[in-house]
């Protein structure tokens, strides 16, 4: 990988690794093979993915623990972004919790599990409709001033919320769902381009729907690449602020995804 992107004052390669998939089924509990999960994480870094995306809700907590097990003490160029603001009372629930008191506890838990004194990129996982958005972002700004957060990101937001967050703190990234099939955040992507903010598209494969697209299959045949590689290459070509974070629990799929950085679409 030769292309890089900025996260504040940090520079990372333009294909990151979404670590969510190394957890157990439904992103709940530990993986069936913990050693294999650690090998995937190590291999992702070896292949040039020096930005890892995780969250305290993945597992919950398991994902952050695995990253520390696999890679701590961390390579100097590895940037870890985690998220807080969602709780998992059971394997099928993803409930927002943007209360300042919860986010303080969540950040401290992430610091402990990741064995860090400061999180490089801490992201509000989602707005909580029960809590003023300004309060959730405001506590992250407070924790940044306290030295526990290096850079702040937000996730699952619209343009108005992005503007609101930027009045409170310096926002260096936005993470929204975005792929060939789902471009509902096009206006947010355009705002990030104007502002020079990294855009992290989650579900880059559309939970598999992109891979089944007849158009993607047709292009993959023309350029001799897999549908997954086309989906990633399209994102990289779509915008200079795009930082895809495809995830997998398979080294074979990981290597296939990374190879997408060398594909040039017609």
Question: Unreliable stretches, pLDDT < 50, 5 or more residues?
Answer: none
Terminal-residue CA separation: 20 Å
The CATH architecture of the domain at 83-256 comes to Alpha-Beta Barrel
Strand content: 15-25%
CATH topology of the domain at 83-256: TIM Barrel
Radius of gyration, whole Å = 17 Å
Q: Tell me the number of helical segments per DSSP (H or I, 4 or more residues long).
A: 9
Q: Which overall shape is indicated by the principal axes computed on the Cα atoms?
A: globular
CATH class of the domain at 83-256: Alpha Beta
Order of helices and strands: EEEHEHEEEHEHEHEHEHHH
Helix content: 25-40%
Question: Would you identify the CATH H-level superfamily of the domain at 83-256?
Answer: NADP-dependent oxidoreductase domain
* Overall average pLDDT: 96
- Largest pleated sheet: 7 strands, parallel
**Class based on secondary structure composition and strand pairing:** alpha/beta
Strand order of the largest sheet: 3-4-5-8-9-10-11
The count of strands amounts to: 11
């Amino acid at each position: 990988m030769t292309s890089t992107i900025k996260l504040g004052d940090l520079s990372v390669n333009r294909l990151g690794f979404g670590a969510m998939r190394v957890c157990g089924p439904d992103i709940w509990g530990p993986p069936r093979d913990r050693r294999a999960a650690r090998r995937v994480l190590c291999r992702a870094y070896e292949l040039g993915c020096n930005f890892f995306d995780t969250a305290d809700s993945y597992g919950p907590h398991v994902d952050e623990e695995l990253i520390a097990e696999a890679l701590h003490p961390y390579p100097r160029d590895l940037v870890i972004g985690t998220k807080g603001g969602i709780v998992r009372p059971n394997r099928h629930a993803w409930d927002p919790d943007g209360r300042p008191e919860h986010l303080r506890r969540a950040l401290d838990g992430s610091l402990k599990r990741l064995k860090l004194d400061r999180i490089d990129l801490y992201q509000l996982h989602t707005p909580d409709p029960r809590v003023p958005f300004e309060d959730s972002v405001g506590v992250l700004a407070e924790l940044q001033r306290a030295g526990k957060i290096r850079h702040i990101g937000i996730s699952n937001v619209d343009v108005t919320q992005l503007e609101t967050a930027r009045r409170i703190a310096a926002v260096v990234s936005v993470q929204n769902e975005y792929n060939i099939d789902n471009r509902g955040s096009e206006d947010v992507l355009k705002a990030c381009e104007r502002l020079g903010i990294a855009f992290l598209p989650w579900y880059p494969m559309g939970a598999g729907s992109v891979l089944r697209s007849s158009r993607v299959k047709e292009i993959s045949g023309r350029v001799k690449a897999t549908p997954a590689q086309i989906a990633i290459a399209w994102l990289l070509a779509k915008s200079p602020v795009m930082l895809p974070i495809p995830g997998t629990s398979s080294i074979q799929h990981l290597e296939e995804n990374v190879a997408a950085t060398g594909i040039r679409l017609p």
